[in-house]
Amino acid sequence: xxxxxxxxxxxxxxxxxxxxxxxxxxxxxxxxxxxxxxxxxxxxxxxxxxxxxxxxxxxxxxxxxxxxxxxxxxxxxxxxxxxxxxxxxxxxxxxxxxxxxxxxxxxxxxxxxxxxxxxxxxxxxxxxxxxxxxxxxxxxxxxxxxxxxxxxxxxxxxxxxxxxxxxxxxxxxxxxxxxxxxxxxxxxxxxxxxxxxxxxxxxxxxxxxxxxxxxxxxxxxxxxxxxxxxxxxxxxxxxxxxxxxxxxxxxxxxxxxxxxxxxxxxxxxxxxxxxxxxxxxxxxxxxxxxxxxxxxxxxxxxxxxxxxxxxxxxxxxxxxxxxxxxxxxxxxxxxxxxxxxxxxxxxxxxxxxxxxxxxxxxxxxxxxxxx
Length: 371
Prior knowledge:
Layout: H1 6-20, H2 30-35, H3 57-61, E1 64-65, E2 70-72, H4 81-97, E3 100-104, H5 110-124, H6 128-132, E4 143-147, E5 161-168, H7 180-205, H8 212-216, E6 223-231, E7 243-246, E8 252-257, E9 263-267, E10 270-273, E11 281-285, H9 287-292, E12 302-304, E13 312-320, E14 326-327, E15 346-347, H10 348-357, H11 364-368
Parallel strand pairs: 1-10, 2-3
Antiparallel strand pairs: 3-11, 4-5, 5-6, 6-13, 7-12, 8-11, 8-13, 9-10, 9-12, 14-15
């Protein structure tokens, strides 16, 4: 199976290096600081995602409420064959039709989920001096704190501050706030277990052995990253965007949030508002599940919108292959005559760096590895 052209990788890597060395670095926490300005009545022009003539009206017209597929995680370990077969079928339909599902009965204590969200809030409430201790500037720094997505290359900033931490196979943690390391270590371990069990079920739903993807992608040493997002109230939410339409790298992302909604996903060309129930995970499929399945399961495009009333905090746990794994379509799902490979192979670490070093836009990076 062919690999992504070395000229493309080298050119994009050079661009990434240029971006990493850009001297400009926005003030950390600038959106939170900006939102808390007592005289703020309109957003600065650099945050205006839509122009004043459209006000996103066409987009608002197509937003619909959708019935999100629900997966009962406890049934994946059911001793009753019919129950397990049913949840495998549910996973197949959710991945084929939505690329997104709600997970219930996952076994992680609600108290732990709440503590982790509280830790994220405490992190963002710190002084800029404290957050600067997590100021890794390279896109693959193990701990990185900042604003927007990649402010060094963006012409328009997003109404978002973030913390990104590599937590597996090597565990990292910001030094403060107190307790963050202990709570996040337990939370990451538990969510990683849930993700691997879901991937086993997804593997079986593709007609593969239960542990096929787990073994092929070396998920014992999987890459797991904690991404905490802060979306403060915005005086003109119709003009700003928390995160633009994009798909995630990796296999699965497990997301939880506080009681403020803002996640929307693109389903059949329409934006669907996602409402998270307490003690559940919102799970979306990533680009590398699309590559592995040779397009049978598509990564879902989603975005984060903002409001003018409440702060939204979300916590995404992204799960991908071992960073050194070259990801290609699974041989068993490829037939050169009727179902040829649709994607070039690319090492996961290279793909991750390309996505994180450039502007976020739909499936722009995935499109570059399509054959």
